[in-house]
Amino acid sequence: MLEKMPLVSVMIPAYRRPDYCELAVMSALRQDYPALEVIVCDNSPEEDTAERLRPYSSDKRFRYVRNREAHSKADNFRPFESLAQGEYLQWLMDDDLLYPGKISQMAEVLRSHPDVSLVTSNRQFIDEAGRKVPRSDSLRDVPEPCGVIDGAELGRTMLMDVQNYIGEPSAVLFRRKDLQHHYWCADCRGYTVISDVAMWLELLEKGSCVVFKQPLSAYRRHARQEGQQAEVVLLSRLEWLQLGEEYYGRHIFLRQPDEYAQMLGRMLKECDDCLQGERALAPGASDQAYQAYIAGMKLARQRLEILKGEAGTEVRVDG
Questions:
Q1: Nearest to 319 by CA among 256, 266, 274, 279
Q2: How many domains are there within the chain?
């Protein structure tokens, strides 16, 4: 008797991007994994997305939910908690893409390796037209076709480098049961801008990460993206500070003073470069946003001085 395949839920929150959303849905329905459900929750004020996705309603794997009552991003994410029935979860932002074979390859890893809590691939960025954009923050030393990275080591590296090496929500497949603080309200543990990083670190607390060398999804960069807004960029730095403080306080990932100091040193170097370059970090951000950012960095500088004393050495920041 063949073993029953775990159901994978592909969850697509949609808002006013019918062209991109249809491409996302098509990329999900083209997956060759046999136990699949694809759910779109749409709170667009217009009916363009509903009309564009109507032809896919005949596919039994597909479900479209018109979420007219939702007045915020959080309102449009929340229904997935009850809509998604899968043992494995796959977020797919409505402007991103899944590449062929992504889910089948990643689901097999989760089925075969209970010690693995997170599966991702090297990052592929695309622009508005779907053209590939080179990136420098991938995990380049991954063997073919994939490699296993210790969860504690990867979490430590991400925090010390202040880099999301794992990818955005669309990049990752994980078990529903392994994540306590889910993305149901478009945040995770109160982190709203780097909520994906907060999720990945929570998963890395529980196990290892498998990374496929070749990209298995695409993250689209475009001007309408929330993450490209200047004030969101500044808020992301404050959330990184909060995340580092949290994990150093819990003695997880950042266990030594010099490790946490390395993280703070990187962030302060970026801040100094920003100030010298006349706000090059986030052009167009409001004075209020910059004041909050500078205040946060001032506290980080005070914390760094304390850590230097605890570590007993100078902190060297590479890069």
A1: 266
A2: 2
